[in-house]
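Batch job 17 of 40 flagged for manual review because the log was empty.
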Amino acid sequence: MPRRFVFADESGNFDFTRNPGASKYFILTTLTATDCTVGQTLLDLRRSLAWEGVGLNSEFHATADLQVIRNRVFQAIAPIGFRLDATILEKCKAQPPIRDTPERFYKMAWYLHTKYVVPQIVQPGDELLVVGASLGTKKRRALFHAAVDDVIRQVSPTTQFRVASWACSSDPCLQATDYCAWAIQRKWESGDSRSYDLITPKIASEFDAFRVGGTSYY
């Protein structure tokens, strides 16, 4: 039976204010593939960069990496077949009960995202592995993991699924997702579409969840 791999990363934070450092958006991005070629490609690139003497001291991380490394990453993953989906939530338009805890807001984001995406990528009888980048403290990571597991249980057409939560540093497929999420976040937060334009052909959906809402709550 076919197996689908879904790797997820989030952009933005849970600061629901207009203070400096608070993101305007919370964006959930998933990378879906039939295999893990994109991760192996990044491992190969990392070894090549080391041989070339290009500075990469740890895992790929778009926010921290030099632009020369970003260019190489996007160049490396461009020929690989995978699907990107993003759900964008303008945080100030989230009603107070939805954002009373980070866990509730996080679960809502996952539900809005996966109720559309998951039925698009799997059929009954398929296998589905969903891997999210772990966030926050040990307690919060456990709550987020439980939230994702519950959401997938609600929306998945297949019962053959597993949900995992790993550090981004542990899996190069998550690092590829981080790069794509960063590119989408840059477009929405600052209007910088340079990297976004490189991945546009892979974006299957980009859903502005609160697009029709006109009320700002802070």
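Reviewer: the log was empty due to a logging misconfiguration, but the result itself is present. The CA atoms of residues 87 and 171 lie 22 Å apart. Unflagging and moving on to job 18.
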